[in-house]
Structures are given as structure tokens and as C-alpha cells.
Amino acid sequence: MPIIAPSMLAADFANIQRDTELINNSLADWFHIDIMDGVFVPNISFGFPVTEAIKKHAKKPLDVHLMIVRPENYIDQFAKLGAAYISVHWEACPHIHRTLGQIKEAGCKAGVVLNPGTPVHMLEEIISDCDLVLLMSVNPGFGGQKFIPSTIEKVRKLKQMITEAKSDTIIEIDGGVNYETGKALVEAGADALVAGSYVFSNADPLKTIEGLKNL
Q: Which positions does UniProt annotate for a divalent metal cation binding (predicted)?
């Protein structure tokens, strides 16, 4: 069964406690927290206060995805807020090995994110240092985008790299995930699926999460 991480970017911010409790009571495994700065991506999302509010009620791990420039400046604060996983973009980190070490020193699991146009072979030298690799299956910045089909083959390549390195790195996918794409991703080797609007815009979010969990 895949790890399911509903994206709180698609939650109702006016009812954040209600939606957090909904995820607590579902078969989901993690809370996916998207942090955007309007610089690295063309959108601005929530920051420390909303993350803290979610953590206050969350009974499952926080999976924090930093879509920001200079993420190394904010790692310690997100760790203090209770992040279990912190993922940074390869494209935003000129010293990615150092940043991964910083995340681990802060007491969190360390992840690297690749945009759709970044090939997985860029991670060959650091794959054993990654607890998680998050592949973007849409261009980051906005929810509800259409899934990029070439992600399936990208997952296969990444899985092969992880196997050859004898690593236990988790492969996570974010963007356009639904039952159809989720099934293909899991078959290709994905371990974790992020779903935002597909969960929260559904009439029965609990049933939607259950369906993804049982792929």
C-alpha cells in the first residue's frame, strides 16, 4: 500500500482544524505541507503560522515541501515546528549535499525535489543521502494541474537508481494524482502519493483517500 499524503494547500484555511481532523481520521499517512515564496515558484502559500496551526491538531507526520529560494535559512524553524520530513528543490540548492546534512542535523528526514524538467541522474552522487525523493509531476506553484505522463518513466529510472545504490529512499509523487495516475505510479515504483484538490474537492474525501491507499 502506498503512503498517502494529502496536500493541505487544498484544504479550507477558514476551517483548518476541521480539515486537519479529517486527515487524522482518514487512512492517510502524512500531512503534505507546501511552502511557496512567490520567487522560486509563481505563487505564495502559507508559512510558519499555518504550519504551526496544522501541527497543533495533526496526529500524523508533517511532510514539508519547501518551494523557496535559500531553503537552508528556514530548515531549523520548520524542524522546531514539528516537521518529520523536509524536502528541498535540487534546483534551489547549489550545495545540496550540505543542505541534506543540515536537515538531518535538525532531526528530520531529508528529501530532494526534482522539477519535471530535471532528470533523475542529477541525484546519482547523493541518492544514498536522500531519505526521500519527491518527483513533481506538474510544474510547481499551483494545485489542480494536469499530470505529466513522462513522470511514469522517470519513476522507473529513479527506482532502478535506488535499487542499484542499495538505498531505502522513498519515492514520492506530487501533482495530478488520482486513481488512474496513482495506480500507474505505484506500479512503476512510487512509494508515496501527494493528492490535494483530488481529495479535498471530492464529495467524500475519506473514501477518496481510502481508494488511493488501496491502489
A: 32, 34, 65, 174
**Helix axes of 179-188 and 151-164: crossing angle, nearest 10 degrees:** 30
C-alpha cell at 31: 500531512
Query: What is the enclosing helix (H) or strand (E) of 67?
Result: strand 62-67
State the alpha helices, DSSP H only, in 68-213.
75-80, 96-105, 151-164, 179-188, 197-200, 205-213
pLDDT in tens, 45-56: 889 999 999 999
| pLDDT tens per residue, range 65-97 | 999 999 999 999 999 999 999 999 999 999 999
Give me the catalytic one of 29, 63, 131, 174.
Answer: 174
Categorize the per-residue pLDDT at 5 as very low, low, confident or very high, splitting at 50, 70 and 90: very high
Neighbouring C-beta atoms of residue 164, cutoff 10 Å: 10
Clarify whether 34 is annotated catalytic. Answer: yes
Residues flagged as binding site: 7, 32, 34, 65, 141-144, 174-176, 196-197
Domains and CATH numbers, the chain: 3-213 (3.20.20.70)
Which residues are known binding-site members for substrate?
Answer: 7, 65, 141-144, 174-176, 196-197
Q: How far is CA 167 from CA 34, 158, 159, 160, in A?
A: 26, 11, 10, 10
Catalytic site residue 174?
yes
Residue in 29, 34, 63, 131 annotated catalytic: 34
Alpha-carbon gap, residue 115 to 118, rounded angstroms: 5
In this predicted structure, the answer to whether residue 8 has a pLDDT above a threshold of 90 is yes
